[in-house]
Design a protein that fits this description.
Elements (H helix, E strand, L loop, with lengths): L3 H14 L4 E4 L1 H8 L7 E4 L3 H7 L2 E6 L4 E6 L2 E7 L1 E3 L2 E2 L3 E2 L2 E3 L3 H6 L8 E3 L5 E3 L3 H7 L1 E2 L5 H7 L2 H13 L2 E2 L1 H10 L8 H11 L5 H10 L7 H10 L9 H11 L12 H17 L6 H7 L1 H14 L6 H10 L12 H7 L5 H16 L7 H13 L2
Parallel strand pairs: 2-5, 12-13
Antiparallel strand pairs: 1-2, 1-10, 3-4, 4-5, 6-9, 7-8, 10-11
């Protein structure tokens, strides 16, 4: 199987063969030089979007307004973007317009950090207009040009600074960090959907604790209050194999005034987080029990236990939770031998709510070992208790 880089060179060659300039750019070049894995490859070119689309069989205009076309070649996809200059930025996030350019320097100069403004041609030669190679060797994250302009253009770059700390174990340039400390209140203007995306990347890199420590030191967490206590705690407490669910549930649990509904998660994710928060509160000083483990399910209970264990290392009930779950007589309502449909067929009761109450009672009795999950036993109990038969 050919590597993504090999296929990417084919994309460059097609563009070059048709008279256009084309380079690998940004994060891929940075990661390539650091010899670390990169999730995707971005390409910048002098070709206009419609020219790029005409050169490749399978494309998609994923960011046509900003000159970006996704090119699909063999098993890979590549974002191919026309050289451009950005106009004025709206709401400290997006430019109000873009102007296409034929000059690579124009395109590199609009990027966030020097280590992300490196371009590489098809032969591996590096274009370095902003001393990014030097900063890469020194392990420095430095904004291009005036950091105040970079962060007021796009406030999300403030969080990206710490994402690269987490990924690369780099330090932040003094002027850049001063600007971060000045402008972090601009994060209030950024949708929490975008904040979620940044932290979901940051926490999975190896140096997330260093990034958290710097988020605390620079007071950036003051502009993300719902996450502030959790980040502060995690800056000094390691959490092995931390998932998004662990991170956000812990943060929302520790911030008493947090309303999970204010965050742009799916309804299912919100419900799961709220269940985890409820479980943490109930079990932080007490044991899990059969009803909790049945009601919330194994995975949700284990996530809550993981958080309990970080908050209090002596409170690890994982073995007990797994043992109880394995020993449960039923794991879901559908495991019942006597179901709601049986009640409908054997009685005149049609009230769904009342039938649900009866089923809940049966589940409770089974989980607490007062009744066996047997059709005849459950039928007899139900008819005698609720229908006097």
């Amino acid at each position: 199987m050919k590597t993504q880089l090999e296929i990417g060179k084919k994309v460059l060659k097609v563009l070059i063969d048709h008279g256009h300039l084309a380079y690998f750019v940004g994060g891929f070049v940075r990661d390539f030089l650091l010899d670390t894995e990169s999730s995707d490859i971005d390409i910048t070119t002098s070709a206009l979007p419609e020219e790029t689309m005409n050169l490749f069989e399978i494309t998609r205009p994923t960011g046509l307004k900003y000159g970006t076309i996704t090119v699909f070649l063999e098993e890979y996809s590549f974002e191919v973007t026309t050289f451009r200059n950005d106009g004025f930025y709206l709401n400290n996030r997006h430019p109000d317009s873009v102007q296409f350019s034929t000059n690579l320097h124009d395109d590199l100069s609009r990027r966030d950090f020097t280590i992300n403004a490196l371009a590489m041609d098809i032969d591996g030669h590096i274009v370095d207009d902003f001393n990014g190679l030097s900063d890469l060797k020194k392990g420095i994250i430095k904004a291009i040009g005036n950091p105040n302009e970079r962060f007021t253009e796009d406030a999300l770059r403030i969080l990206r600074t710490f994402r690269f700390v987490s990924k690369c174990n780099f330090n932040i340039d003094e002027l850049t960090i001063d600007s971060v400390m000045t402008h972090h209140p601009l994060l209030h203007k950024i949708s929490n959907e975008r904040i979620i995306q940044e932290f979901s990347k940051l926490i999975h890199y190896p140096y997330y604790q260093k990034a958290f420590q710097m988020l605390v030191k620079t007071h950036v967490i003051d502009s993300i209050p719902d996450l502030s206590e959790g980040i502060t705690f995690l800056s000094t407490h390691a959490f092995e194999n931390m998932s998004d669910l662990h991170f956000y549930s812990l943060c929302f649990y520790m911030h008493i005034d947090c309303n999970v509904d204010n965050w742009k998660f799916s309804n299912k994710q919100k419900l799961t987080m709220q269940n985890i928060i409820n479980l943490i509160e109930v079990t932080k000083d007490d044991s899990f029990n059969e009803l909790l483990i049945y009601s919330y399910g194994l995975e949700t209970c284990l996530v809550a236990n993981d958080i309990n264990k970080v908050l209090n290392p002596s409170n690890d009930q994982s073995k007990y939770i797994k043992s109880v779950f394995e020993g449960l007589p039923i794991h879901k309502t559908c495991d019942l031998k006597f179901k709601g449909q049986d009640i409908l067929e054997l009685t005149e009761l049609k009230n769904a709510f009342k039938i649900g109450e009866i089923i809940d009672d049966l589940v409770y009795k089974i989980i607490t070992n007062d009744l066996k999950n047997d059709y005849d036993i459950l039928k007899q109990y139900t008819m005698k208790t609720y229908f006097n038969r």
